[in-house]
Amino acid sequence: MKRLRLVTYNIAHGRGLRPIQGLQSKRSMQAHLRRIAALLVRLDADVVALQEIDQDSRWAGNFDHLEYLREHSGYPFALHGVTTRRTGLFNLCYGNAFLSRHALEEGEAVAFGRRTLGEKGFLFVETVLGGLRIPLVNLHLHYGSRAARLRQVGEVFRYLEKRHNTRAPFWGVPPIVCGDFNTSDKASDAAAGLLAELEHFAAYALHPENGRTFPSPLPARALDFVLVPAGLNVTRCEVVRSWLSDHRPVLAEIKLA
């Protein structure tokens, strides 16, 4: 029986619990990213899905955070999916990313819009574990508008539907979806909406069922999830106690039938 150990984590641009970007030096930010890397080593995941990770942003030290994390956590594969890009004096470049022990293939990043600050989106990838090809989606949804989140999960589903039409014969399992849903506790919000859409492929379950991830010092809201198709046994799912971001990471261990 194959096992996928998956972590999803919004790292808040590497700023830790500071409320505003740009209030620390590059050296201090790198030290903080090394602490995140040490946490990832301890969690021992096969695949890590990251949100709010910068590539070359003035407010985040103008260096590649993903490559820095990769070097210090020992992952051989990484893929960055930029959703916000701005050039000029106040340059920004950030989005979602994967770190992986296994090769990442068919990667594609999709932004929900064209804003040069705060744009959300998702990153699709396929990886192969023990001969089984696994499609993965790492998403980050709108933080302030339920209507926008529901439109965005519709876009994620339509994208997966197109992918399914061409790639399904190669997939060993239906897509596994994870990330920062920025969802409210309402059953009609984004997480529930995407669960309903994904029934086109299979029945899905939401993990963790009752885990609150935000804000990390005293979590009051469930924002970060892993959506797993029926037939895959989630043997462990937990919200990891950590104060290295305003979110806590979620760890899911999935047996792949």
Count of distinct structural domains: 1
CATH homologous superfamily label: Endonuclease/exonuclease/phosphatase
Fill in the CATH topology: Deoxyribonuclease I, Chain A
Beta-strand proportion: 35-45%
In spatial order, strands of the major sheet run 3-4-2-1-12-11
The overall pLDDT average reads 95
Short structural description:
The protein has 4 helices and 12 strands, in the order βαβαβββββαβαββββ. It has helices at 26-43, 65-73, 146-167, 190-198; strands at residues 2-10, 47-54, 77-86, 92-100, 104-111, 121-129, 132-140, 176-180, 204-207, 224-229, 233-239, 250-256.
Word description of this protein:
The protein is α+β, with helices and mostly antiparallel strands. The protein has one domain: Endonuclease/exonuclease/phosphatase (Deoxyribonuclease I, Chain A). Helices cover 23% and strands 35% of the residues. A 6-stranded mixed beta sheet has the order 3-4-2-1-12-11. A 6-stranded mixed beta sheet has the order 5-6-7-8-10-9, with helices on one face. Helix 1 crosses helix 2. The chain is globular. The mean pLDDT is 95.
Helix-strand layout with pairing:
Elements: E1 2-10, H1 26-43, E2 47-54, H2 65-73, E3 77-86, E4 92-100, E5 104-111, E6 121-129, E7 132-140, H3 146-167, E8 176-180, H4 190-198, E9 204-207, E10 224-229, E11 233-239, E12 250-256
Parallel strand pairs: 1-2, 7-8
Antiparallel strand pairs: 1-12, 2-4, 3-4, 5-6, 6-7, 8-10, 9-10, 11-12
Helix pairs in contact: 1-2, 3-4
